[in-house]
Amino acid sequence: MRRLISLLLVIGLAIFSSSALAAEAKVFKVYTDANSPDNHYIASGYMGDYGDVSMDDKFMGDPNSGSTCIKVAYSAKKMQGQGWVGIYWQNPANNWGSKKGGFDLTGMTKLSFWMKGEKGGEIVDKVVVGGIKGLYPDSSETAFGPFELTDSWKEYTVNLAGKDLSYISGGFSWVVNADSNPQGANFYIDDVKFIADATVKPETKKQEEMPFYVYSDRGSIQNHFISSGYMGDTSDVKIDLGSIEDPYAGSTCIKIEYNNNVSHGARWAGVYWQNPANNWGGIDGGFDLSKATKVTFWARGEKGNERIEEFKIGGLLGEYSDSDSAGIGPVILTQEWKQYTIDLVGKDVSYILGGFCWSTNIDVNPEGVVFYLDEIRYE
Question: What is the pLDDT of residues 329-357, one digit of tens each?
Fold first, then answer.
């Protein structure tokens, strides 16, 4: 009898242990508390204006759970001239794809994390899982955002169902930018973890509702796409996304300055608004804008008679290409605001990474050009 009881106890403990391991296997933690042995990845991958950010991963003031959380302070001073900043949690530390590391997260279907702002209204450009390139690249990249924080803790999730998570060295990253947070931003992060939730199904791109903004106002949560795709004589272009010089609507507009330095010998320049930033077709991003029949925007020149060779949407090529393109031009601007329209009837705009762009050249603007844009949107 004693042997039978002992055997049953051993079997019971084995079953309990197996169940506990199975339960543990459903969660893979990035950050739970400072110095926790359950933490994976290291917050080592500083990007952009790294001089603008300080981080305390042992902050004890009002964590979401446990005894600590992560406090991030962003000054938006643009100390490295980038206008944005981000941090990657990497494995091993400082691994941008040059070392073999990472984890096999196959079976995980979502990333869960909690965030709050110090004041509320802080805008996070994106949160990213994966995306490290190099000799040992991550097996996938998934981005979520933008989103606006409140002054209370809130859970956010990134859908990872159907993604290849077999090798992830960049487990978690966030990005904020100065245009969305011109006064800087203090925010908090806690309880970052991967979860294997069988109820989460792969996302499909939904048709976006209209109107769908490329630019509404500086820092607006309505804005989609990022003015990151500089072309031609890139050093000859300066963009201010928060100009207060007579905006058409709202409190700001876009001011664009193109000088005649021919800094790279191209004799022309242009800029794409992309999703995600700097995406020339190498990343699965963009939006399904099938409900749109046109793009409208307002433009004016500083003096009048400025010639823009083309205003355009779509046209990016690569592994993930835009589904179509459309444009107008050349356009001769006036000093007064005027609305322009790009006709999309008959165009396939079901997958658009390059939401808007302009281009011009020094031959038609020998003295350079200053012009303004506002209220760029799909309708």
Answer: 999 999 999 999 999 999 999 999 999 99
Domain 212-378: assigned CATH number? 2.60.120.430
Say which DSSP state 205 is in: P
Rounded CA-CA distance 337/298 in Å is: 6
Domain ranges of the chain: 25-195, 212-378
Amino acid 185: pLDDT: 97
The Cα diameter of the chain in Å comes to: 100
pLDDT value for 19 = 34
Structure tokens at 32: 């739970």
Q: From the CA atom positions of the chain, what is the Rg in Å?
A: 24
Around Cβ 120, how many Cβ atoms within 10 Å?
12
Contact 191, 64 (CB under 8 A): yes
The pLDDT score that the predictor gives to residue 169 is 98
Buried b (16+ CB within 10 A) or exposed e, 321-356: bbbbbbbebebebeeebeebebebeebebebbbbbb
Supply the pLDDT for residue 352: 98
The pLDDT of residue 4 is 41
Peptide bond just before 146 cis, omega within 30 deg: yes
| pLDDT of res. 179 | 82
C-alpha distances in Å from residue 361, one per residue of 82, 239, 274: 25, 16, 21
CATH number of 25-195: 2.60.120.430
Give the residue from 287, 281, 294, 279 showing the smallest Cα distance to 326. Answer: 294
Q: How does DSSP assign 40-84, residue by residue?
A: -SEEEEEEESGGGEEEEEEE-SS-SSSS-EEEEEE----TTS-SE
* 25-195 and 212-378 in the same fold: yes
pLDDT of residue 133: 93
Integer Cα distance of 328 and 240 in angstroms: 23
List, for the chain, all residue ranges whose pLDDT scores fall below the cut of 50: 1-25
